[in-house]
Every structure is written in C-alpha cells, then in structure tokens.
Design goal:
Blueprint: H1 9-23, H2 42-45, H3 63-92, H4 97-101
Length: 106
C-alpha cells in the first residue's frame, strides 16, 4: 500500500488510520485452559495424597471443592515433608533444640 498520488506521508498515515477504524477488529481475549482433575494423570492427581482414598470418577459438582482441598493438602504435605529437613538444619546449627524434637511428631 503505497502513497496515493499527490498525498504526503501524513496523508498516508491518516488514510491507514481511517481504514483501521472501518475494519474495527476486536482482539480476542486470551483465556487460560482450566485443567480438570479427572483428566489429569494419576501421579499428578494424587501427589502426596495417597492417604486419602481417591475414587477414579469425579463428579463435576465437587470439582471446585476438591480442587481447593487438593491445593491445601498439597501445601500441607510439602510442609510436612520439609519439616524433618528443616529440623535437622536447626539441630546442626544448634539454633533450636526443641524444633528438632518436633520432627518425631510428623
């Protein structure tokens, strides 16, 4: 799309702007795909949740509740797994002798 005869650079820009206005293409908003638990892999679905008896077929109605529960449990289990390591660190550095004793309660 070159310049038309007899118009300067400003004229070209103005014309292009007007053409864009005529088209009025609205950009589609990018949406994040929601991962459904019942479509997840088995290992991912029950990471650190083996102690919960998990049934294979989930109902979509309890999906949201289950999701929050899963997230909460995941964080808790991570904390529990890291607890002994943290306590050992404390013990080796002689910062807190009591925190080391807490490891045995996990």
């Amino acid at each position: 799309m070159g310049r038309e005869k007899g118009e300067g650079k400003r004229g070209k820009k103005k014309r292009k702007r007007e053409e864009k206005k005529k088209k009025k293409i609205t950009k589609k908003k990018w949406k994040r795909k929601k991962t459904r638990i019942w479509k997840m892999k088995e290992s991912k679905r029950t990471s650190g949740l083996q102690f919960l008896s998990v049934t294979q077929d989930y109902k979509p109605t309890i999906f949201y509740f289950w999701h929050t529960l899963l997230n909460w449990h995941h964080s808790v289990t991570l904390f529990m797994l890291n607890m002994p390591r943290m306590c050992m660190y404390m013990y080796t550095n002689k910062k807190h002798f009591l925190s080391y004793k807490n490891c045995f309660f996990n």
